[in-house]
């Protein structure tokens, strides 16, 4: 069985195909899950809506607790890390992470950044030893997990080699820290022209949903092969 961690981070409730002014990224992530369930209805889906219920941001107490050895932590330190523990446990259970991540002011929503900051954690998802020869950091997340970033943006040309690709700080800002902790199998699709609301928007939606279907097929084949090995 494959486990999927489904994350939505849009501040807009509802999907654009079901609600006026609904979220395009929620539409794509829901499409992914629907297509996956069509082929693999018994797989486990963990759902986390950080757009509606944002994780607490990292604080000084959080950092202090995270860099304290577990056996030396005081009760308040365990409390400070409780939500992070839950989010990390969900991540570690998952084989595929599918994240709806809209573009806000050229980057990801603050809610998604808060999730990232809680799961990139010393001793849980990456190791650190300043006495280690060479690079003192190393990834701790194993299992060949896959990350799928499903985005939406108001303008167009943010994709690789696009007219304003240099202004896109969404996928890179998500993929880089996940790669740092060991998640290197990366996929993505995005709806553009959202603010235009014309035929270009509709075509972009169709193209993005087609790419989502391709990603689902590729990942099902990949994880079927791995589970059979």
From TrEMBL:
Cofactor: binding details: Binds 1 FMN per subunit.
Cofactor annotation: FMN
Pfam families registered for this protein in UniProt: Flavodoxin_2
Domain Flavodoxin-like fold: 3-193
Chain sites annotated for binding FMN: 10, 23-25, 103-106
Enzyme class: oxidoreductase
Catalytically driven reaction(s): N,N-dimethyl-1,4-phenylenediamine + anthranilate + 2 NAD(+) = 2-(4-dimethylaminophenyl)diazenylbenzoate + 2 NADH + 2 H(+); 2 a quinone + NADH + H(+) = 2 a 1,4-benzosemiquinone + NAD(+)
Entry-linked Gene3D superfamilies: 3.40.50.360
Any one GO molecular function term: oxidoreductase activity, acting on NAD(P)H, quinone or similar compound as acceptor
EC number: 1.6.5.-, 1.7.1.17
Database matches in InterPro entries: Flavodoxin_fold (IPR003680), Flavoprotein-like_sf (IPR029039), FMN-dep_NADH:Q_OxRdtase_AzoR1 (IPR050104), NADH:quinone_OxRdtase_FMN_depd (IPR023048)
Keywords: Flavoprotein, FMN, NAD, Oxidoreductase
Region (Disordered): 1-26
Organism domain of life: Bacteria
UniProt record similarity statement: Belongs to the azoreductase type 1 family.
Function: Also exhibits azoreductase activity. Catalyzes the reductive cleavage of the azo bond in aromatic azo compounds to the corresponding amines. Quinone reductase that provides resistance to thiol-specific stress caused by electrophilic quinones.
Subunit structure: Homodimer.
Record-given protein name: FMN dependent NADH:quinone oxidoreductase
Organism: Thalassospira lohafexi
